[in-house]
Design goal:
One of its GO terms (biological process) is proteolysis. It comes from Halteria grandinella. InterPro entries: AB_hydrolase_fold, Peptidase_S28, Ser_carbopepase_S28_SKS. GO terms for molecular function: dipeptidyl-peptidase activity; serine-type exopeptidase activity. The protein is α/β, with parallel strands linked by helices. It folds into two domains: 10-170 and 362-454, 3-Layer(aba) Sandwich (Rossmann fold); 174-354, no CATH class. Helices cover 40% and strands 12% of the residues. The chain is built from 15 helices and ten strands. It has helices spanning 69-77, 108-130, 144-155, 177-188, 192-209, 215-225, 233-249, 253-263, 268-281, 292-295, 306-317, 339-347, 357-364, 426-443, 447-454, and strands spanning 14-21, 32-40, 51-55, 80-84, 137-142, 162-166, 173-175, 318-320, 374-379, 401-406. It is globular. The chain starts with 13 loop residues before the first strand and ends in a 14-residue tail after the last helix. Mean pLDDT is 93; it is low at 462-468.
Length: 468
């Protein structure tokens, strides 16, 4: 018999604020800011229930109700579910604007220290309210927060007991050509015609922007996509590439290729309105995250995130999506030479000229990350998988970790976190089961831990949980 789970809604979470330190690495700096978080305790066993900490990333945070699988695990384990907004995003703002000077405290090290300070304060409040208990901590994140989750368990091993890293990009890479490669291999699963069609469209627009097509064709492309005369050609071609890449990244490869394969015999100029329609359906209705002139805007807006995230990739991570040399799926306008001038134009050369990817990987370990009780999940059609742990890199030094690679159609970014459905592939179901078994093992208090907390009369572990 299949267990019925409560479907979580945003209103089921209590929004709260927390006073966070601005600079965790200078004890003389007493500045702080208000950080937003949410909590849900409707399933919680306040004696032995674990604490799930869902890490939000590069955007305004909301309780992740569409990523429902962690909630199911939470219900099985009687957890307290917390959601923490990342500094500089949403309502969690240290400064009134996003000047380059003010962005200096936006980095992963400060974000991890935020998490440590937050969890320690929460566990102290729980002890003060409920008294003695055994509450193991699990961090959860997807994509960049997936990396934060793994890095946190590695860097703060006594604060968290386990980490779930979904599509966690733990390897900083300046020129990330494998992103482009995955767009090619994923779309080729629908037939190589789909991949070739994307290449042909990119090449056509490239030629138009270079002035190699009749002037009426050039004018048509610019008018159709609303290109301003001053918009950098690379900025526009980055936007165009993301239309196709975004469909692959978020599990809609088949629907994209169905459309492209149905129109591939038409002249490319007549296909462009269809591409514009796809972009509109994806919500890509402006160039907010692509136009370097717009990225220079330092004005705070609770719903904006592109300037902050561009800062992070320009200073720490790279992950610049450049053409793959063997199977280029994007324009040469956005080759390796595109990025440093972009970073300098947006932030100034003093602040951001090239990301310190070597420093980032040296600090966290890259694919040689060290730690225990970390599960990594990646999917075969996710362009970010090659910046993550697809398989354990070194069995001798990483025996306390496990990597799960999910191979199925449209299995893409953070697919393991999504709410389960009857249409899920067996490989996805098996992967979720494996993740839940690991998390359950890592979060279940031992008899010794229970005896230490409650005495000999209460040494039973929590009731056996249901695993589908």
């Amino acid at each position: 018999m299949t267990k019925e789970y409560v479907q979580m809604r945003e209103e089921d979470f209590l929004a709260q604020n927390f006073t966070q330190l601005l600079n965790h690495y200078d004890f003389k700096d007493k500045r702080n800011f208000t950080q937003r978080y949410w909590s849900n305790d409707q399933f919680w066993d306040n004696k032995t229930g674990p604490i799930f900490v869902y890490i939000c990333g590069e955007g305004t945070c909301r309780p992740p109700t569409t990523r429902g699988f962690p909630f199911q695990v939470c219900q099985d384990l009687n957890c307290l579910f917390l959601v923490l907004e990342h500094r500089y995003y949403g309502a969690s703002q240290p400064f009134p604007d996003w000047s380059s000077e003010n962005l200096k405290f936006l980095n992963s090290k400060q974000a991890l220290a935020d998490l440590d300070y937050f969890i320690k304060n929460q566990t102290t409040e729980i002890f003060n309210k409920y008294g003695t208990g055994v509450h193991k901590v699990l961090t959860i994140g997807g994509s960049y927060p997936g990396a934060l989750s793994a890095w946190f368990k590695s860097q703060f091993p006594t604060t968290a007991d386990a980490a779930w890293s979904s599509s966690g990009v733990i390897d900083a890479i300046r020129n990330y050509t494998d992103y482009d490669l995955d767009v090619y291999t994923a779309t080729s699963r629908s037939g190589v015609q789909c991949a070739n069609q994307i290449k042909a469209i990119i090449d056509y627009v490239d030629q138009a922007l270079k002035g190699n097509l009749p002037t009426d064709k050039v004018a048509y492309v610019k008018q159709l996509f609303g290109i301003k005369p001053e918009l950098d050609n690379g900025d526009f071609m980055y936007y165009l590439a993301d239309i196709f890449a975004g469909k692959v990244q978020y599990g809609a490869r088949e629907s994209l290729c169905n459309v492209l394969n149905s129109i591939h015999t038409s002249a490319i100029v007549t296909q462009l309105p269809v591409i514009k329609q796809i972009a509109d359906q994806m919500g890509m209705t402006d160039f907010e995250g692509y136009d370097r002139n717009l990225l220079k805007n330092v004005t705070y807006d609770i719903n904006k995130n592109q300037r902050q995230w561009t800062w992070q990739v320009c200073t720490e991570f790279g992950w610049f999506q450049v053409p793959n040399p063997e199977h280029p799926m994007r324009s040469k306008f956005i080759g390796p030479q595109y990025w440093s001038p972009l970073c300098e134009a947006v932030f100034g050369a003093t602040y951001a000229s090239d990301p310190d990817v070597n420093g980032t990987n040296s600090y966290y370990g890259g694919l040689d990350i060290q730690g225990t009780n970390i599960v990594f999940a990646n999917a075969i059609e996710d362009p970010w998988q090659y910046a993550g742990m697809r398989q354990i890199h070194d069995a001798a030094t990483q025996s306390g970790m496990e990597a799960v690679l999910i191979n199925c159609n449209n299995c893409a970014h953070c697919v393991d976190l999504h709410s389960p459905s009857g249409a899920d592939a067996p490989t996805l179901i098996n992967a979720r089961n494996r993740i839940q078994k690991l998390v359950t093992k890592w979060l279940t208090p031992s008899a010794e831990e229970l005896e230490k907390a409650f005495g000999k009369e209460e040494t039973k572990t929590p009731q056996e949980i249901y695993i589908q």
